[in-house]
């Protein structure tokens, strides 16, 4: 998190880890693990920006109060260590989102992000934009990202339509976390994007495809434990070494495919992080189920066999 | 709301209105309209039980605090006028649901209901049952209903599987609001149901089908303004006059089909209620959009042409 | 199949069995089993009309030539034994459908039925109606039925919209096989239907719901082996004995639910018919897989425990 | 179509046009347009291989006889002009597919391709592989391609699972036409592919993404009229000029997005081809609807404004 200059001036690029929320064994939020978590990301994974209280962070399973406490701790502990902390403030309820956006501004978050509400689904790009605008209005100085993840929300509005003239509605607009497989829509977002926007890709298993299409960076949960490898993928891509980039991407796909066959949900993902990082992030909250130890262990072993270097 | 006897002893039957949440023109909750609303339902529609803070009530667009205030007011104003007030306490977050369930017990609600969480979706009946149990545990004396609405939540776990041995987990279990079109699952719920349970149907447009399958009652939004007609449908059905029951059902279908062709979402439904009842329930909250006046008026006119008697 | 009077004059009611196609052990069509099959249906199941070469008959896995040979044999063997033989002539290709429709007229079928093409899906009711009309035109004297089964075809055009003024396009139109769960659409079809039309329901597991909504009859695969029981359901319904009708419907649901949990596809269904009837209808064709003997046997045992009377 | 060497020895790469089927104004197949069509593709679009009787070719709307006649004419006219003619022989019916595969071998097709049957859907990779094997068996010397297009067929079996040990079942197996957006599955297919296989991508609007992932070539309908531009995209990609490749991809996306907003189905696509090529391919067959002239003209104008160079 930059200390002096307005974060708005730095364009967000590279890898961003979508963080898990640490819980105690009693299932309460566990602030004490946040500091070590940040150190792990910077020191072991080469990760310099985080997206907190998102899907990976189980935000929809948290109360508004818990989200505030977590956001505050993430910002505090990231200070001087992370480039940017993006706080996800999207909720089903506009009122709750506004409360969190306003709070994010107070605690010095670098940016906020908002997912489409998914219980009542916006029927058009205009409705969605109006909803996003109402959130952005209470934190007008914070860089604003739209978070698109149609497989989870069921909201399939083309992002390109959301971007159309969006700075007229949201002057603080700065980009998109695009977690979808429609790369025509993605490409058009890149093509339309302003120089100070970041079009970030969110399906870790096919990042290379999005890089080819012009992605400026990526946000994902696997970068918590495989950021060190994916950083090499990006480096290879930037040097024009597609063969090397592809090799790393295929390894990630092999890992994720293996995990998928065993059953790979957020609970498994979290336990895999515990195994690989040594952190104690606990189990997920209901309705996400905890992962049997053996299952996470098996995936961790696969990880080590695919990436023996680390 | 029964004054003396435990509500648990009365089996819920007949029509239950899923109430809209009244808002002011500024978009804040409007408690002053709740009293007149209850009078309208009892006096004009013959409705004696209500399901508050559900989907129709835009609960997911409300903050937890707003839901508490509303629940309290509904219970207070319903006292002596309504047979039962079921307070829906389902949220994406288990913590929030527990807080609302505990509050419902304190304010004297007759029952609580819980929808399946839909952002993170329970993958099996067992996971869903564990989630429901965790909510029920904090309000063990309140009759408990599961609210099934797969088209909205995307949670398609067969309800019959949820019911299996559920009283071992939730001794206060009392029934289901079944808002789905799978009448095999519905029939099996009726067949399996205990004498003190209520299996209530929630797709107003095909209630007659569910009655034939053994529904004990119905919960729906259209009973807010068409309860008087649907009460006659139920009466005809109970007397064995299927022709008359069918005639009324077909009229409801004609109305809803007309509305659907114009575009019929919760915002339209709410404005239609305003038109037909004369109440001032306001507009919905984002992301549900307000309904153009002309559209609701057109549906209201259709209503009057289909049901000229009232 | 009526010998003298034009079939068009008799309104189709009651149960219609959607027949399986008999195959030899080599996977070729087996005409020799058709005679015994018809006898079994009339004598053991009380079934007097059949729907051949439909989904249950694996029509889409047959060549046009095979469908012709089968249709001819069904009509020949049904003569004097069955009231009506409806030959399904729907194909992906309009040309093929027309060839089969023309052939059905030549062989003396009582009626034809056409499913919506599902590879290229009609985008509107008008497109679908035009397609149906083009088929009907080559067999203008044959009663024509539209076959609606959206879960299989993915064509979700409301049937009520298909029916609108359809006799202007298809003077021979006589009804619908409605195999969907949208009973609002179904009810509106019943409400709109002309006196000489038959609105037939096709989801066996919830027939009672459709009867309440006014169904004139039913077409289904389970009537091949459970027609004798479902005939009693219909009789009870017609006498106003809903409790008895419901009891039988619940038994059918118990059976089908049991089968579903074991895995219930067309291959299982066919083998179950072999077990229960003693006929030798063979295995299905790829891509439908044959059913392990033990699985069909287990469902057959369940059948006998649920319906011990037979 | 190579004259001497067995086609099997040449690995299929580059662009392959999925051809439209020419119809007369009476809606019959129009063989006379096939010669000029091939000349147009080679001379104006730089296309040297074709995929005939596929989805773009409306194969499912053709009779088996028509498909044979067409396949024969395509092969005859392509001789000496095209590198490879892949004849798609997939049908709903295995019998029909086998008849077409056998015929393709007789007429000297360079390869055959088979889509997953979509009325009865294979439930697992093994079932699908068995189906494909049964087709391949009747034309064992012809290179065999699996055609994956889940959005159309609804068959979502991971292609990587289909490829597993497939040469044991189908020794003539040579590759995949992958028309899906799951680039993890696609990447794993590339990673697993044998040197003599071709993993071809089929979503024209995001080809660049697939190239980054290692695609060996592409099959699509837009290469009929935009092959000349997409050839430049591939050339730029191969030279490592991602900026130029992206520029062309974005132009294609702009065109297709424009068309999509106007309504872009196979009928529109075919009429657009007529406009841009000057060929007379006629209208599509029901249930695909013909395209209003003005709509195709508008898209053609967009094409010329985006690609002024041609």
UniProtKB/TrEMBL annotation, chains A, B, C, D:
The entry's protein name is N-acetylneuraminate lyase
InterPro entries in the record: Aldolase_TIM (IPR013785), DapA-like (IPR002220), Schiff_base-form_aldolases_CS (IPR020624)
Recorded GO molecular functions are:
N-acetylneuraminate lyase activity
* Cross-referenced PANTHER family: DIHYDRODIPICOLINATE SYNTHASE, N-ACETYLNEURAMINATE LYASE
- Active site, renumbered: 147, 177
Example of a GO biological process term: N-acetylneuraminate catabolic process
This chain's source organism reads: Dicentrarchus labrax
Question: What is the catalytic activity of this protein?
Answer: aceneuramate = aldehydo-N-acetyl-D-mannosamine + pyruvate
Q: What Gene3D superfamilies does the annotation carry?
A: Aldolase class I
Subunit structure and binding partners: Homotetramer.
The UniProt annotation places pyruvate binding at 56, 219
Domain of life per record: Eukaryota
Give the main EC class: lyase
């Amino acid at each position: 998190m930059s200390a002096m200059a307005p974060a708005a001036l730095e364009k967000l690029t590279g890898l961003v880890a979508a963080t898990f929320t640490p819980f105690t064994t009693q299932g309460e939020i566990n602030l004490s693990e946040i500091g070590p978590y940040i150190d792990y990301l910077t020191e072991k994974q080469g990760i310099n920006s985080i997206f907190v209280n998102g899907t990976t962070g189980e935000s929809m399973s948290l109360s508004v109060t818990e989200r505030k406490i977590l956001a505050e701790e993430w910002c505090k502990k990231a200070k001087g260590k992370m480039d940017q902390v993006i706080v996800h403030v999207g909720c089903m309820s506009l009122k709750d989102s506004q409360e969190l956006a306003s709070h994010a501004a107070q605690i010095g978050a670098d940016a906020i992000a908002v997912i489409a509400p998914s219980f009542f689904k916006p029927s058009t790009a205009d409705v969605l934009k109006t909803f996003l605008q109402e959130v952005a209005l209470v934190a007008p100085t914070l860089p604003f990202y739209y978070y698109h993840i149609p497989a989870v929300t069921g909201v399939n509005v083309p992002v390109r339509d959301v971007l159309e003239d969006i700075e007229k509605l949201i002057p603080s607009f700065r980009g998109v976390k695009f977690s979808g497989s429609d790369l025509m829509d993605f490409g058009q977002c890149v093509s339309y994007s302003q120089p100070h926007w970041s079009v970030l890709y969110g399906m870790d298993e096919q990042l290379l495809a999005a890089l080819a299409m012009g992605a400026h960076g990526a946000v994902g949960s696997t970068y918590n434990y495989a950021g060190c490898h994916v950083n090499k993928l990006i480096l290879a891509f930037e040097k024009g070494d597609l063969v090397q980039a592809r090799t790393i991407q295929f390894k990630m796909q092999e890992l994720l495919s293996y995990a998928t066959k065993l059953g790979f949900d957020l609970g498994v993902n979290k336990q895999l992080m515990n195994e690989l990082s040594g952190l104690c992030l606990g189990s997920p909250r209901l309705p996400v189920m905890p992962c049997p130890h053996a299952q996470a262990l098996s995936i961790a072993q696969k990880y080590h066999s695919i990436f023996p270097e680390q």
